[in-house]
Specification:
Layout (H helix, E strand, L loop, with lengths): L10 H15 L27 E5 L3 E6 L5 E6 L4 H4 L7 E6 L15 E2 L11 E2 L8 H5 L2 H6 L4 H25 L6 E8 L2 E4 L3 H9 L3 E2 L8 E3 L3 H11 L4 E4 L11 H8 L8 H4 L3 E3 L3 E3 L2 E2 L4 H4 L1 H12 L11 E2 L7 E2 L22
Parallel strand pairs: 3-4, 5-6, 7-9, 7-11, 11-12, 13-16
Antiparallel strand pairs: 1-2, 2-3, 7-8, 8-10, 12-15, 13-14
Length: 360
């Protein structure tokens, strides 16, 4: 019986990669980190879905309010008189002259403008970028507007987010239309230190619902099961015999080696004939795309939730003619795709524009 390793604290690293992707998404900078041409600052962004940041506009400045930590960022246009006269760096407010002349996101090697660890001491040029504080896919994706205001490219950020949102909502309607008399039951679960647990993460539950499925935790009271306890194990097997789709989110440092056999070993079962999700080959993981051993689930998947939703719709209502982006079916033996170490030069399906899927 195998046991998964403890998940590492790699939040800042994966957020760094996603920041680069989002900067691409609004054409803020090239991969070298140079500023884009200054654009007319008259265009504005309105926050429609995200809950944890707000944007306010003045004549020659903007204020971005981070609701998670109470910080305010005063963004002063570089051609204004205020730009040379005003400088804030307090526990409540910081100022930046925009558009930024350069930026960094690697908090391990040098100071960054955008960081994700809001509980750490911060220099004057740090801005807390926390899309992971949001609970729904579209709320997280809208943080692209947070980045856009620092470079005066609100119009581009609006275009990207609007395209993503429109496609997501259209796919959601497709999923609703596919649901007949009952919804597929989905068990999104993970194994750690001998215990299986069903997810309680709002984001994942929302994805399942938007894809037309029903979360297994809506119908059970117990959320964790210790496989060394015979009663727990028996209960777990009974629940798994009632579900249609399983998403195994167990952490592993080597996703390429995680297969259906690994799952069965962790579930501690020999006769799996009652598992409909295995008979129907519907056992999935969200580790199909990796970069330097880090899952693109924490990177591109956050900035383009419509692709995640499309993957899940295929998992719940298989057509056989769709190639998933982030999810791999380990019941079918799907492998891992290494998208490369250099995000600037990789030939990726995620480029400057969001990937908009056909939706009818």
């Amino acid at each position: 019986m195998s046991s998964s390793s403890s998940p590492p604290n790699c939040f800042s690293a994966i957020a760094s990669g996603w920041l680069k992707l989002l900067f691409w998404g609004v054409w803020l900078w090239s991969c070298g980190g140079r500023a884009a041409s200054t654009v007319k600052p008259g265009e504005i962004s309105k926050v429609e879905d995200a809950q944890n940041f707000h944007i306010y506009y003045g004549q020659t400045f903007k204020v971005v309010k981070n609701a998670m930590d109470g910080h305010s960022y005063l963004l002063i246009q570089n051609n204004s008189r205020m730009a040379s006269r005003t400088k804030y760096c307090t526990s409540r407010i910081k100022s930046f002259v925009i558009p930024l002349s350069n930026y960094s996101v690697d908090t391990d090697l040098f100071p960054a403008h955008f960081i994700t660890q809001s509980d750490h001491p911060q220099a004057c040029n740090f801005a807390n970028f926390v899309p992971f504080s949001e609970e729904t896919p579209l709320q997280r994706a809208e943080w692209i507007k947070f980045l856009g205001v620092f470079a005066n490219v609100e119009s581009r950020a609006n275009q990207v987010y609007n395209a993503i949102k429109e496609n997501y909502l259209c796919l959601n309607q497709v999923a609703i239309n596919k649901t007949k008399s009952f919804k597929p039951i989905v068990a999104w679960m993970e194994f750690y230190d001998g215990v299986w647990s069903f997810t309680q993460e709002a984001l994942k539950l929302k994805y399942v619902e938007d894809a037309g499925g029903e979360n297994v935790d809506n119908s059970i009271n117990k959320m964790t099961y210790n496989i060394s306890n015979p009663d727990d194990l028996d209960q777990l097997h009974a629940i798994l015999c009632t579900v249609d789709v399983v998403i195994d989110g167990t952490y592993t440092s080597e996703p390429v080696n995680y297969t259906q056999s690994t799952f069965l070993q962790n579930v501690n079962v020999e006769d799996h004939s009652c598992f409909a999700f295995l008979a129907n080959q519907s056992l999935w993981r969200f580790d199909k795309r990796i970069q330097n051993s880090i899952l693109d689930w924490f990177d591109g998947a956050v900035s383009q939730p419509q692709l995640v939703l499309a993957d899940l719709i295929e998992a719940l209502f298989p057509t056989g003619n769709y190639t998933s982006t982030y999810f791999r079916n380990i019941a079918r033996g799907d492998g891992v795709v290494n998208i490369g170490a250099d995000m600037c030069n990789r030939n990726s399906s995620i480029a400057l524009d969001p990937t908009i899927l056909p939706c009818q």
